[in-house]
Specification:
Layout (H helix, E strand, L loop, with lengths): L15 H4 L12 H4 L4 H7 L6 E4 L6 H11 L3 E6 L5 H18 L3 E6 L6 H13 L3 E6 L3 H4 L2 H4 L3 E4 L5 H13 L9 E3 L1 H11 L3 H14 L8 E3 L1 H8 L11 H15 L3 H13 L4 H16 L5 H16 L5 H13 L5 H15 L60 H17 L1
């Protein structure tokens, strides 16, 4: 099939993602955390008061598109270069032209540099004086963390805005507009099945460009019926993106079934199953922060003091996700999953804190024993605060028996360690302390 002649009108040669690029803020989808009504960046764009910035985020989240929107909105001259093809000489020429434009025509220049992390230090340094003087307003785009890839001097002269993967609702809006717009796919009279659209959105993983490329291919290759309508089924979209659907609904029961299976596999010390359910969630574009949050909870709830390092690994996975993002963060997250799944298990921490909360809820709030009260303020000694307190570090093994719970609750037992992992030694230590208290 000749894809470029598969429509009653000759198909535009530009890809759908280019044809559907938003022309103003109203057409722009997503990134409401920085472009919503009243947000700083939106107000700056609308007031034509844009300053140098770095747009940081995954592919297909609208970095270049946002720069294009700014170019339509602002009264400044807009110059676009790619870091992969520009050099020091070209940058110096652009800066000199910008300086003359500002001096003789009182017109600002916005320089958009895509993939700014590919500029070497020398190229980045060329931009600094022009940014400092206001001769150039730099808008740079990068898929890499700018704190690692861009030199500090340039960072200090620019605002950093992080763009996030587009939400399902954003992608739905983009797809529907593409199907209906004259500059999009309206001439194909396509009808997209709901499960087909869901599949395209799921496999796009928050990337509008991936979505539009797959949508265009699916629509163009669908066969028109006698009425000229092209019905795009789930099978067609699966063929278009060469991936199969994974049953997963973030708002439905299946979502909770998957995360339940994930947690129970961790609790059951089965790293293979835990990794499988993790992969299912990743493939279905589950929010990785949700997965990591569940890991952190599980590390305390079901591993706890049997191996406290499990909590450190879970938190490290969360930090890795924030610092490097997906897909690279899948590796440290998987490391935490394997560690937690294979760690000794104990739910004593969960039981202990729940007992403590129940105790507080069902008993009258007793005063703090005098020997435990604060002694650092003036007059505390006159009130008897701290009198009789025994400083543990002054005694053998840094322990001395004394009462820490309020009067009437001194015999309460909240934490009961198991004999799993590290808790076995904790149990032995606490039993020694109990014997010392009984002797006193």
């Amino acid at each position: 099939m000749d894809l470029f002649s598969a429509t009653p009108q000759n198909r535009l040669e530009q890809p759908l993602a280019v044809r559907m690029r938003p022309r103003n803020l109203e057409e722009y989808s997503g990134q409401q955390h920085i472009l919503g009504k009243g947000k700083l960046l939106r107000k700056a764009i609308e007031a034509d008061q844009v300053s140098s910035m770095i747009l940081y985020g995954p592919p297909g989240t609208g970095k270049t598109t946002l720069a294009s929107v700014i170019s339509h909105k602002t009264k400044a001259e807009f110059v676009q270069v790619s870091a992969t093809s520009t050099g020091v000489a070209e940058l110096k020429r652009i800066i000199e032209e910008s300086r003359e434009r500002r001096k003789f025509h009182q017109k600002k220049t916005i320089l958009f540099i895509d993939e700014v992390q590919r500029l070497n230090k020398g190229q980045q340094d060329v931009l600094l004086p022009a940014m400092e003087s206001g001769d150039v307003i730099l808008i740079a785009a990068t898929t890499e963390n700018p704190y690692f890839e861009v030199n500090q001097a340039l960072l200090s002269r620019a605002h950093i805005f992080q763009l996030k993967p587009l939400h399902t609702s954003d992608l739905q809006k983009i797809a529907n507009l593409a199907l209906q717009a004259e500059r999009g796919l309206a001439s194909f009279h396509a009808h997209l099945a709901s499960d087909a659209l869901d599949h395209l959105i799921r496999t796009a993983s928050g990337d509008a460009r991936v979505l539009l490329n797959a949508l265009e291919f699916a629509v163009v290759t669908a066969t028109a019926n006698s009425e000229g309508i092209r019905h795009v089924s789930l099978q067609i979209t699966e063929d278009a993106v060469q991936t199969q659907r994974v049953s997963y609904d973030k708002s439905g029961d299946f979502h909770y079934d998957i995360i339940s299976a994930f947690i129970k596999s961790l609790r059951g010390s089965d790293p293979d199953a835990a990794l499988y359910w993790f992969a299912r969630m990743v493939y279905a574009n589950e929010d990785p922060r949700y997965i990591v949050r569940r890991l952190i909870v599980h590390a305390s709830e079901d591993v706890g003091m049997a191996d406290p390092t499990a909590m450190l690994l879970a938190q490290a996975a969360a930090n890795a996700l924030e610092w490097i993002g997906m897909p690279e963060a899948r590796i440290p997250i998987a490391q935490a999953i394997i560690y937690i799944a294979t760690a000794p298990k104990s739910n004593s921490v969960c039981q202990a804190v729940d007992k403590a909360l129940a105790l507080v809820a069902t008993h009258q709030a007793e005063p703090v024993p005098e020997h435990l009260r604060d002694t650092h303020y003036k007059g505390a000694a006159d009130l008897g605060n701290g009198v009789g307190y025994l400083y543990p570090h002054d005694y053998p093994y840094h322990y001395v028996p004394q009462q820490y719970l309020p009067q009437g609750l001194e015999n309460q037992k909240l934490y009961t360690p198991t004999e799993q992992g590290r808790e076995k030694s904790i149990k032995e230590r606490l039993e020694y302390f109990i014997k010392q208290r009984l002797k006193s």
